[in-house]
Design goal:
This protein is of the alpha+beta class. It contains 14 helices and 13 strands. Among the domains are: 65 residues, 3-Layer(aba) Sandwich (MutS, DNA mismatch repair protein, domain I); 62 residues, 5' to 3' exonuclease, C-terminal subdomain (DNA polymerase, domain 1, Orthogonal Bundle); 100 residues, 2-Layer Sandwich (Dna Ligase, domain 1), CATH 3.30.1490.100. Its EC number is 2.7.7.7.
Length: 364
């Protein structure tokens, strides 16, 4: 591990059984029951596959991508629910906006996971405190759990987030990387799928410690350029940078009150600082926005949101603020408010870049 990696602090946040957790959150009667997200085989849809499932269902051996007919045979009492992507995307957007508040270096990699570069923190003690704050914030705002991995590189953070699932937090300091990786199955390295794992196993390579015994040329011969990535990641070496996805769609911020608020003056103060915050972040990227969205969450987790698209793109703080106030006036129902947020979107201008896992070797 090089000197730059030793100075970095990278977070990987992975939502726990995301689709199933959202469904169980909204339907309390499903708590602690085996829930499968996928077509119901009892309704003649036996050719589908499991999208995800609750941890209770996993105890029966049910896994993602398993045929739903197999899942039903293993656990006839499973509750099958159809995929509700509009709901999952909405919750995902809320979670990602929470994460963006902690670092300008943010990279969403799927609907339920993201990286943060937190190298601005003083040390791993501060990182641990921040990790728990993130977990508590998501639990408070969205009533679902996540697992957090913290380490000196993206690959270590990714592996660490899976280490104590569900609802876990694992820290791997630079000096502990080699010992942490050694006993883990080789398949824990991102990019090693079932076929590659079977090929490794046929050659007696079961753990990451076993993988380290292989020289780089033999791995390249067997697996092509991914063999080089395996070699380096088995040693914890990964200098990919956390980067915003190309074409960021929105910038937002929200605040949750310790007690529900009925005083509109308090809410207006929140509106003021939120607008200033999101305007600053937009300006730093050289963006101009066209759409302003206000979201209000009332007691009982009842959400209301409304958007306004302008006739032009703007980088004016006063214009964003005035439109947010107008939307709030139209939206507010004169009821106690639990949380309040503003999002701007419809950007033009700015520059960004996306780094994929396949770029790993070129960035070494």
């Amino acid at each position: 591990m090089n000197e730059d990696e030793e100075r970095r602090i990278i977070f990987h946040i992975d939502m726990d059984s995301f689709y199933a957790s959202v469904e169980m959150r909204d339907r309390p009667e499903l708590a602690k029951k085996p829930v499968v997200i996928g077509a119901d085989p009892k309704e003649g849809h036996g050719r589908g596959v499991v999208s995800t499932c609750s941890y209770e269902a996993r105890e029966f051996g049910i896994r993602s991508a398993m045929p739903v007919s197999t899942a039903y045979r293993i656990c006839p009492e499973c509750i099958f629910l159809p995929v509700n992507m509009p709901l999952y995307r909405k919750v995902s957007e809320n979670v990602m906006e929470i994460l963006r508040q902690y670092s300008e270096k943010f990279q969403q990699v799927s609907v339920d996971e993201a990286y943060l570069d937190m190298s601005h923190l003083a040390d791993y003690g501060a990182a641990e405190d921040t990790g728990y704050r993130i977990k508590n914030k998501i639990k408070q705002e969205e009533r679902i759990t996540c697992s957090v991995g913290i380490g000196p590189s993206m690959v270590i953070a990714k592996i660490a987030s899976d280490y104590r699932k569900p609802d876990g937090l694992t820290i791997v300091k630079p000096e502990d990387v080699m010992d942490f990786l050694a006993p883990l199955p080789a398949v824990k390295i991102p990019g090693i799928g079932r076929k590659s794992a079977a090929k490794l196993e046929r050659n007696g390579i079961i753990t990451i410690a076993d993988l380290r015994k292989c020289d780089i040329q033999s791995l390249i011969s067997a697996f092509g350029r991914h063999g080089e990535a395996m070699y380096r990641m088995a040693r914890g070496t990964d200098n990919r940078e956390v980067r915003e996805r190309e074409g960021r769609k929105s910038i937002g911020r929200q605040t949750t009150y310790e007690e529900d608020v009925s005083d509109t003056d308090v809410i207006m103060k929140s509106l003021d600082w939120i607008c200033r915050d999101i305007h600053r972040r937009m300006s730093e990227r050289g963006y101009r926005c066209r759409t302003v969205t206000v979201k209000i969450r009332y007691s009982g987790f009842i959400d209301r949101a409304k958007s306004k698209s302008l006739s032009h793109h703007t980088d004016s703080l006063s214009e964003i603020m005035n439109n947010a106030k107008e939307i709030f006036t139209d939206l507010y129902e004169n009821k106690p408010v639990r949380s309040f947020g503003i999002t701007i979107s419809g950007f033009e201008g700015g520059n960004s870049h996306q780094t994929s896992l396949d770029e790993y070797i070129s960035l070494r």
